[in-house]
Structure formats: C-alpha cells, structure tokens
UniProtKB/TrEMBL annotation:
Top-level taxon of origin: Bacteria
Database matches in PANTHER family: PROTEIN DIPZ, THIOL:DISULFIDE INTERCHANGE PROTEIN DSBE
UniProt keyword Heme present: no
Membrane as UniProt keyword: no
Gene3D superfamilies: Glutaredoxin
Protein's name in the database: TlpA family protein disulfide reductase
GO molecular function terms noted in the UniProt entry: antioxidant activity; oxidoreductase activity
Xref: Pfam families: AhpC-TSA
CDD domains cross-referenced by the UniProt entry: TlpA_like_family
Transmembrane segments: none
Domain Thioredoxin: 29-168
Taxonomic lineage of the native organism: Bacteria, Pseudomonadati, Bacteroidota, Bacteroidia, Bacteroidales
Length: 171
C-alpha cells in the first residue's frame, strides 16, 4: 500500500513537471510571424528599431550574464558566427541582455571581451515580446522580416542548425 502511494505521488509530480515545461515552452513569436516592434537603447551602441533592419537577415539572441548555457552560446557566437557575418551588410546580430543595464553589460564584456554589440533590456520589455521565460533564446528573421527559425537553450547541434539557416537565408 505504501509503495502504491509513493508511486502515485511520483506520477503526479512527473505530470506536474511535464505540464509546467510544456507551458513554459509556449512561444509568443512563431515561425512566419513578423518581428515584434521594439526599440533597443544603448549608450554604447546606439538605438535600434525593426525599421532599421528592413531587408536584412536578423538574429535576435536573448541571454543573461549569469546563465551557463548562454555563456556557451555567446562564446560560439564570438568564435564562429560573428566573425563570419559581421561584415555582411545583409545580416544584423542583436544580442540582448535580459534584465541587464548598459553598465552591467559593459562590466560583463570587460571580462568576456566580446566584439559584438550587447544591448540592454533592464525591464524585460523586449524579452517579454518574445517569451515569458527560459534563456538562451535565438530568433532568426528573414529578409522579409518574418521569423524563420527559433531555439531555446544551447547545444552545438542546434547552433550548427542556426548557422545553416542563416547561410540559407542570406542566399
């Protein structure tokens, strides 16, 4: 009888966590959707709006400085993605620090030495247009401004898929 109660409890907990995970993974922006309207303001890198990005392939990367998987993804952006596309006039990279200020990102970048811009989103105003939680997140928009790829979390395989999708979108 005791093992039946424990088994029932374990099953209930598993269903709760599966349900919670499914709820967390709901995307606010889906494949085919147009890029949300937002303004990024950085004392270091200036202002960016979606109208500045018309006709470009745009990667929106959402991260936090304390997030382990984010660190892995940003290291890959620094070593692979940014060197390949930084001079491509048809591509734009927007790396956005969720809940971080310009001062936070400047201090963080002094340690990391990233050469790509880091835009602050101190009140989650931009992040909340894309999702409620979970980082890192990547959203790739095609030249027509529509979402063509999205990912949550980081794996080398997923990052390679992102690179392949960028390459295809730039053709």
């Amino acid at each position: 009888m005791k093992s039946l109660k424990i088994g029932s409890l374990i099953m209930a907990l598993m269903l709760f966590f599966v349900g919670a995970h499914a709820q967390n993974s709901v995307e606010k922006v889906k494949i085919g959707d147009t890029m949300p309207q937002f303004t990024l303001n950085s004392d270091v890198y200036g202002q960016v709006t979606p109208s500045d990005l018309k006709g470009k392939v745009v990667l929106v990367s959402l991260f936090a400085t304390w997030c382990g998987p984010c660190q892995k993804e940003l290291a890959e952006v620094q070593s692979t993605l940014y060197p390949k596309y930084k001079d491509n006039e048809n591509f734009r990279l927007l790396v956005i620090g969720r809940e971080h200020t310009d001062a936070d990102l400047t201090k963080y970048n002094a340690r990391k030495k990233f050469t790509f811009p880091l835009y602050p989103d101190p009140k989650r105003e931009v992040f909340s247009l894309f999702a409620d939680q979970s980082i890192p997140r990547a959203y790739l928009f095609g030249k027509d401004g529509k979402l063509i790829y999205t990912s949550t979390g980081y794996t080398p395989e997923e990052f390679q898929k992102l690179m392949d999708t960028i390459e295809e979108a730039l053709k």
